[in-house]
Amino acid sequence: MKLVVVTAGLTQPSATRLLADRLTEAVTRRVAEEADVHVVELRELAVDIAHHFVTGFPNARLRAAIEEVTAADGLIAVTPIFSGSYSGLFKSFFDVIDNTALAGKPVLVAATGGTPRHSLALEHALRPLFAYLRAVVVPTAVYAAAEDWGGGGDAFTDGLGERIARAAEELAALLRDRKPGNEADRRPGEETDRRPGDEAGERLVPFEEQLAALRPAR
Length: 218
Hints:
By secondary structure, this protein is of the alpha/beta class. The protein has 7 helices and 7 strands; from the N terminus they run βαβααββαβαββαα. The protein has a single domain (2-188), classed as 3-Layer(aba) Sandwich (Rossmann fold).
């Protein structure tokens, strides 16, 4: 099971990377098998992404990052919030990915910011972005403000851990459902061994026969 983490933190150390690490650890604890985790640090790809917009072609390093993201079984995407939305670097990276490449892929979205007032950016910016890319975004999005990092286990001040646990369980459940052989892993239109009418031992009547039965007798 391949889990890819995209983090758009600009500083080192970064609160965005710290949140990404906590989410990754929570998800990997919950999946039924050992996860192969890859982290994509967008800060290291900023120049490569800019060159892609100018030339129209990704270089080897950016292409490798894109291939990791598109080949992942699940994705954790974390961005700092600037001016009430995701960072330009975060958006630019997902702009260079084909808009069909993430179709059906489970995604956990998260963000960091200086104040809780920007938490709705997850709903009005990040969730619509991944909905456009046709990814499957887990119900719980995780926002961490500066004050969230000071909690000491108090249920009234340390809600970040609870949000991380809930979001991680939702993503882990989707990842488990995508394991080969599960119904969720089959492509639309792919046949299964079970057909309508099997439960009652009935034969599936072809549509042509049904039409013939409706014709008046001569």
